[in-house]
């Protein structure tokens, strides 16, 4: 059951499969994976196993981040060859995750931002691409009373775009986030005056040239396209 889809800068396709408990890398035009992470149909919590992995993020350095989300609530980082570099959170790291559902990498800030779904927030710990990982350094944390359960995150430049899902009586909406100031600088959604609104968003992606973003929903199954404009002052 494929869950997460990422296309890296070399057009490789990365797929997380929550039924197989595996993550696959497909080179362009190939039908067989060139890399496989996890053990087929074997959920687990050790270094060789996943339990319903949710999302991936791939750095320009080739390093790989995998959200082992639904059961283990952790992020695993690998080098390009697939060698495990670290697992976080790891004590005494100041970070606690509860269903990390989406990942967005901001290389210029050396941050890996996480849709920390059941904690109803976005957290951005150090990615450790260009700087030493400061285990006692708290992550950048973005949370608001109306943030709700954050299902997806995507990044362009130094901004993060996030979308929540149904959460009690809170509005279902998209958010533009400035992680450096740990603030939400804009909210957005389809125009309800036209009879349109989000139902059950599950993921989000920004197109490579940064001109648009896409929100995918389940039940109903549909994709929304939004043109990206400058955030409100």
From TrEMBL:
One of its GO terms (cellular component) is membrane. The keyword Coiled coil does not apply. A protein binds at residues 70, 117. It comes from the Eukaryota. GO terms for molecular function: metal ion binding; peptidylamidoglycolate lyase activity. CDD domains: NHL_PAL_like. Zn(2+) binds at residues 3, 101, 202. GO terms for biological process: peptide metabolic process. NHL repeats lie at residues 1-29, 42-81. The keyword NADP does not apply. Its EC number is 4.3.2.5. InterPro entries: 6-blade_b-propeller_TolB-like, NHL_repeat, PHM/PAL. Ca(2+) binds at residues 5, 203. Keywords: Calcium, Disulfide bond, Glycoprotein, Lyase, Metal-binding, Repeat, Signal, Zinc. PANTHER family: PEPTIDYL-ALPHA-HYDROXYGLYCINE ALPHA-AMIDATING LYASE 2, PEPTIDYL-GLYCINE ALPHA-AMIDATING MONOOXYGENASE. This is peptidylamidoglycolate lyase. It comes from Diabrotica virgifera virgifera (western corn rootworm). The lineage of its organism: Eukaryota, Metazoa, Ecdysozoa, Arthropoda, Hexapoda.
